[in-house]
């Protein structure tokens, strides 16, 4: 009986050891090798380009109704003729329409530094030896020095540089994009006798 009980106890111990061994997890095996990359999918079809937008309206030409000469040398004759001397510039832009409807602004400088620029007409400021005036004919712009009878025998006509601006009666493109005629320029404080103010207002090079 004791022997049987001893065998039975030993059997239970063996079973317990076997159960414990089976219950323990085994060690993780090594990861398998990485499989080959999959094939890239096919690119989708590009979408259709959108239709081009309509062209915007053309902007208005800036100062299209203003014509300006370059600075031109005014080389007067060395002597007076009946107390006057003139220089004429040929300009095909001066048409009958220009004569009839445009306003002319003329400016004169005694040297090419253009430090002092005088609006025509004016009187020579130092000795008052002459008065300068301007006029137009078809295809021509003329400035004339009218000598002072007190100095015409001692002072020759004085050379210089002249530039003129022809302005149509239509609106101009002025400061702030507002349209102005010659009258409008004056109303907006532009001194027409001041060459630099006029050119700045019109947005033109000196």
Automatic annotation (TrEMBL):
<feature type="region of interest" description="Disordered">
    <location>
        <begin position="30"/>
        <end position="58"/>
    </location>
</feature>
<dbReference type="InterPro" id="IPR008160">
    <property type="entry name" value="Collagen"/>
</dbReference>
<feature type="signal peptide">
    <location>
        <begin position="1"/>
        <end position="23"/>
    </location>
</feature>
<keyword id="KW-0732">Signal</keyword>
<protein>
    <recommendedName>
        <fullName>Collagen-like protein</fullName>
    </recommendedName>
</protein>
<dbReference type="Pfam" id="PF01391">
    <property type="entry name" value="Collagen"/>
</dbReference>
């Amino acid at each position: 009986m004791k022997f049987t009980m001893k065998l039975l106890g030993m059997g239970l111990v063996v079973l317990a050891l076997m159960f414990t061994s089976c219950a323990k997890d085994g060690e993780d095996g090594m990861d398998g090798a990485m499989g080959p990359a999959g094939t890239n999918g096919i690119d989708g079809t590009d979408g259709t380009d959108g239709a081009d937008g309509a062209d915007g309206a053309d902007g208005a030409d800036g100062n299209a109704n203003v014509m300006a000469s370059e600075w031109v040398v005014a080389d007067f004759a060395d002597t007076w003729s009946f107390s006057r001397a003139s220089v004429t510039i040929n300009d095909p832009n001066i048409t009958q329409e220009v004569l009839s409807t445009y306003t002319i602004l003329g400016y004169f400088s005694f040297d090419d530094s253009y430090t002092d620029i005088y609006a025509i007409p004016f009187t020579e400021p130092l000795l008052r030896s002459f008065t300068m005036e301007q006029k137009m004919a078809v295809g021509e712009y003329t400035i004339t020095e009218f000598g002072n009878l007190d100095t015409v025998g001692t002072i020759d006509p004085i050379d210089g540089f002249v530039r003129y601006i022809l302005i149509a009666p239509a609106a101009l493109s002025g400061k702030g994009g507002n349209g102005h005629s010659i009258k409008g320029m004056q109303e907006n404080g532009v001194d027409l006798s001041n060459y630099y103010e006029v050119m700045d207002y019109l947005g033109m090079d000196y």
